[in-house]
Automatic annotation (TrEMBL):
InterPro entries: ARM-like, ARM-type_fold, ARM_PUB, Armadillo, PUB12-19-like_N, RING-Ubox_PUB, Ubox_domain, Znf_RING/FYVE/PHD. PROSITE patterns: ARM_REPEAT, U_BOX. It comes from Populus alba. It comes from the Eukaryota. It catalyses: S-ubiquitinyl-[E2 ubiquitin-conjugating enzyme]-L-cysteine + [acceptor protein]-L-lysine = [E2 ubiquitin-conjugating enzyme]-L-cysteine + N(6)-ubiquitinyl-[acceptor protein]-L-lysine. It is an enzyme of class 2 (transferase). Residues 281-355 form the U-box domain. GO terms for biological process: protein ubiquitination. This is RING-type E3 ubiquitin transferase. GO terms for molecular function: ubiquitin protein ligase activity. Residues 360-374 have a biased composition (Low complexity).
């Protein structure tokens, strides 16, 4: 809940009855008048409101004095406005958000309140009370508040910690296969915990589920797979709890109907037709939104929604890239097992004598799935705010996936590499842990896989890992560069080739990597090939990688020899390519070597293009265009200068750039004017 606030402009002659004090009074009253405090962070919120009410008395006294404020007072009040605004947003977030997710984050939220109180105390440090005309009561209250804020301790409500532990224990027990009345006892306990947070009616349960789903979608937008999995586990439990706690009185009759139907169908029909007969009695929360059938293997997609694995896999494999339920575009295609919901489905089937045929077409075998579940599901239901717990979960997941890559069948390697790829996408800590788990050497081996998806997943995982600075060295030390170039040259999918180019771009940020890659001429040829054949994103990745490599002087000639210059000029004429600025930047860089200058001068269409780009290009594009024109006119570039003088658009474009361009562009435009004037003195072309 980090809130970036707009700066408040304060003048030295600020009036105490001006906008700052009025804004402080207004926002303090808004916070103080909050009704129906949320169930989570109740103690922190009520204490914070009491503090702000005390500050409100200070602000009203200042308004009533109607005298100029000293500068330090204005600074203090500005800081207090920032603090109170963030308090307001934090309280609103607790009110509008999910109670249960707030409970899981209780330590994180408590720390946020604690930091705001410390900031409040820091602001009051610079308040010159002796210079303000305040009432004795107000002065005493502010001094007391200041002392309390300076020595305040972190307040984590022990009751919330206890309730969170009860919720986690209940989730853990119900995530395991239980029999008899054990499950029912868990839900009785869960009902008591949930009622403490205002969940007492079906409508309140539905509202909480909607808030959890909204939180899952928000987290999915940032790629937080582990967090999304945890939220979905809570959604699954609350949804099922609702169906158990508020079950209709005729549950026993329905159960008996299930038994009778199952017995009848077993005598007269096969398992398939038996499943169809009980379809109408399956709880909605256990139905796949696509097939409307019981979810045998529920998985979570990037949008946060859950589907049966077979149904959503068919949807994705048919070319769709959106969530069927929400229509939201999926930022990745990972299918994360929803172990909590799967356990609840099994429990429901056992309770209702519903036969459940395990899906044998899962990516992992039954024994492997069980092994994976024992390692992953325990952490999947835990909460994320505690960094140590999150890191332990990531470590366990990474080690499990690396083990599958090292020992698994090709199909298991494909799935494990895909999940590792996604895990590496979600943060620097994850990237460090994955590298420490020994993933990089195995990923290098899989770069030469004959399976297109495995190769694509491996190179993309390598790309995600390379974002961490230390991992760049590890990747290079693993002897990966030749394998990455192989994928770049002849990868089995275009996405694999493009991600190989992006990996080279990422690695080449380090100077030593520029040198190492520069000793392999085929890297430049492969990048130029992708520049010619790739998608818009692929062309941009290739151009960016070539630019990074060309920063090292010795690599510029290799880029030119690979045939980059004519292709880059061609890119300037292709609006669909969308890399005009990248192409100009690379051409301007290649101009610095003799081979590049010679090749660029061969182009017959470049100068007219550059003149047009001086008028219609972006700020960066104009800078690189004038850099190219100036470089082409220097050192024997009289022919280019004559072309500029002949072209009726060149002088107006230069004049416009000299007047309105960036500082760098203006300097170079003036230099080009001087050069053209020297050329003009030997001819009859006037320069305006």
């Amino acid at each position: 809940m980090n809130v970036v606030l707009p700066p408040i402009m304060i003048s030295s002659g600020f009036s105490p009855t001006g906008s700052l004090v009025e804004s402080l009074i207004h926002i303090s009253n808004e916070v103080a008048s909050v009704e129906k405090l949320p169930f989570v962070q109740f103690r922190n919120i009520s204490t914070m409101i009491r503090r702000i009410k005390l500050l409100s008395s200070l602000f009203e006294d200042i308004r009533e004095t109607n005298s100029p404020l000293p500068p330090s007072s204005i600074l203090c009040l500005t800081e207090l406005f920032s603090v109170i605004q963030r308090v307001k947003l934090l309280i609103q977030g607790c009110k509008d958000g999910s109670c249960l997710w707030g409970l899981m984050q209780t330590q994180f939220l408590s720390n946020q309140f604690h930091l705001l109180v410390k900031e409040m105390g820091g602001a009051l440090d610079i308040l010159p009370l002796s210079l303000l005309n305040l009432s004795a009561d107000t002065r005493e209250q502010v001094e007391l508040l200041h002392r309390q804020a300076k020595r305040v301790d972190l307040l984590v409500d022990p009751r919330e910690l206890q309730r969170r532990e009860e919720l986690l224990q209940t989730m853990t027990r119900n995530n395991q296969k239980s029999s008899g009345n054990k499950g029912f006892d868990d839900f009785v306990k869960l009902k008591e915990v949930l009622s403490c947070f205002g969940l007492r009616s079906p409508l309140e349960y539905e509202e909480e589920i909607k808030k959890l789903e909204a939180e899952a979608e928000k987290q999915a937008g940032t790629g937080g797979l582990i967090v999304v999995s945890n939220i979905n586990n809570i959604i699954s439990l609350v949804t099922y709890s609702k169906s158990v706690i508020f079950v209709d009185r005729d549950k026993e009759e329905i159960k008996e109907n299930f038994k009778q139907r199952s017995a009848f169908m077993n005598r007269n029909q096969d398992v398939s037709s038996s499943s169809q007969s009980i379809l109408s009695d399956i709880p909605d929360e256990f139905r796949c939104p696509i097939s409307l059938d019981l979810m045998k293997d529920p998985v979570i997609v990037a949008s946060g929604h859950t589907y049966d694995r077979n149904s959503i896999a068919q949807w994705i494999n048919s070319g769709h890239q959106t969530c069927p339920k929400s229509g939201q575009r999926l930022i990745h295609m990972a299918l994360i097992p929803n172990y909590a919901l799967k356990s609840l489905v099994h429990q429901w089937c056992q309770d209702n004598n519903v036969p459940l045929i395990d899906d044998s077409s899962s990516s992992f075998s039954k024994s492997e799935s069980s092994s994976g579940k024992s390692k992953l599901s325990e952490k999947a239901i835990d909460h994320i705010p505690a960094t140590k717990a999150a890191m332990n979960a990531v470590k366990m997941t990474a080690e499990f996936l690396v083990g599958k890559i090292a020992m698994g069948s090709p199909e298991i390697q494909r799935q494990a590499t895909y999940e590792l790829r996604l895990l590496a996408k979600t943060g620097m800590g994850n990237r460090r842990i994955i590298a420490e788990a020994g993933a990089i050497p195995f990923l290098v081996t899989l770069l030469s896989s004959t399976d297109p998806k495995t190769q694509e997943n491996a190179v993309t995982a390598m790309l995600n890992l390379s974002i961490l600075e230390n991992n760049k060295t590890l990747i290079m030390s693993a002897g990966s560069i030749d394998s990455i170039i192989d994928v770049l040259e002849s990868g089995k999918t275009m996405e694999a080739r493009e991600n190989a180019a992006a990996t080279i771009f990422s690695l080449s940020i380090i100077n030593n990597c520029k040198v190492t890659i520069g000793t392999r001429p085929r890297a430049f040829s492969a990048l130029v090939g992708l520049l010619r054949e790739g998608t818009s994103a692929g062309k941009k990745d290739a151009a960016s990688a070539l630019f990074n490599l060309s920063v090292y002087e010795a690599n510029k000639a290799s880029v030119v020899v690979a045939g980059a210059v004519p292709l880059l000029v061609e890119m300037l004429m292709d609006d669909k390519a969308g890399i005009t600025d990248d192409a100009l930047a690379l051409l301007a860089l290649l101009l610095g070597c003799s081979e590049g200058l010679e090749e660029i001068r061969k182009s017959k269409v470049l100068v007219p293009l550059l003149i047009d780009l001086l008028r219609f290009g972006s700020t960066k594009g104009k800078e690189n265009s004038i850099t190219l024109l100036l470089g082409l006119c220097k050192d024997g570039g009289e022919e280019v200068a004559r072309h500029l003088l002949i072209n009726p658009r060149s002088i107006p474009s230069l004049q416009s750039l000299s007047a309105d361009g960036s500082l760098k562009a203006r300097r170079k435009a003036d230099a080009l004017f001087r050069l053209l004037n020297r050329c003009c003195s030997q001819s009859h072309y006037p320069v305006g």
